[in-house]
Amino acid sequence: MITLEHVCKTYQVSKRDAGFSSALKALFHREYEYIHALDDVSFTIQDGEMVGYIGPNGAGKSSTIKILSGILTPERGVCLINGLVPWKNRIEHVRNIGVVFGQRSQLWWDVPIADSFELLKEIYRIDDSLYRRNLEELCAMLQLSDLLKTPARQLSLGQRMRCEIAASLLHSPSLLFLDEPTIGLDAVSKLAVRDFILKLNQEKKTTVILTTHDMQDIEALTSRIILIGKGSILLDGNIEDIRQDYPSTEEALAAFYRSHDL
């Protein structure tokens, strides 16, 4: 189970005007701006849930995911995932999570996919029998068998994303973070990724937190959404709570953003 209570995170960002004189002045006297990325964020996610975590750019989604994965430490608040504090129990915590970032890769660019998988096996210290079983299952479900001997740089975006998802699941995590997993994919690849995520959640009971701007992903995969804006939770419910009489979810969401000055 995931529990966040009153979590706050603030960034200190230096700022200056353009020009050489401003750059010179900044060497001796810097001005800072404080950005409240998360402001009293609280929610609970049960084991086996699939939740859409949505909001406009800069709302605080990535900061939340980084805290949940143990990369960032908040100034205040409580974060517990299966009884562990992510940034304090990081080694034990990362054994139980998988993370897929749509615009970042965990695959080595110039080596075959199989070599990247083997390296991840050693990093996570996956038992040989478990690794073989998971690899065989993932290759069958994601149609990866013909891609294992190909370097990541030679794959299409859709092929690479399927490999990225497999890489995050080789160690059988109970919790999966998906950040824009279908960004840039064609219609066929999107459907394949969505079908796999649904099957993973239904058959393995893997808890999934999905962050995306694609409302078709949200509608296809999640029954619950948590909507964040300006660092605060604005809605915890389902897509129908904002849909109302709008012809599309995108229009309803845009109207919701406007009504909250996002």
Please give the CATH class of the domain at 2-15 and 31-96 and 173-259. Answer: Alpha Beta
Tell me which CATH architecture of the domain at 2-15 and 31-96 and 173-259 applies here. 3-Layer(aba) Sandwich
> Helical percent range?
25-40%
Shape: globular
Order of helices and strands: EHEEHEHEHHHEHEHEEHH
Question: How do you describe this structure in short?
Answer:
This protein has 262 residues and is α/β, with parallel strands linked by helices.
Helix and strand topology:
Elements: E1 2-15, H1 20-28, E2 31-45, E3 50-54, H2 61-68, E4 76-81, H3 90-94, E5 97-101, H4 113-124, H5 128-142, H6 157-169, E6 175-179, H7 187-204, E7 207-211, H8 215-221, E8 224-229, E9 232-237, H9 240-243, H10 249-259
Parallel strand pairs: 3-7, 3-8, 5-6, 6-7
Antiparallel strand pairs: 1-2, 1-4, 8-9
Characterise this structure:
- With 262 residues, this protein is of the alpha/beta class.
- Helices cover 39% and strands 26% of the residues.
- The protein is built from ten helices and nine strands.
- The chain has helices at residues 20-28, 61-68, 90-94, 113-124, 128-142, 157-169, 187-204, 215-221, 240-243, 249-259, and strands at 2-15, 31-45, 50-54, 76-81, 97-101, 175-179, 207-211, 224-229, 232-237.
- The strands form two sheets. It has a six-stranded mixed sheet, with helices on both faces. Strands 2-1-4 form a three-stranded antiparallel sheet, covered by helices on one side.
- Strand 6 (175-179), helix 7 and strand 7 (207-211) form a beta-alpha-beta unit.
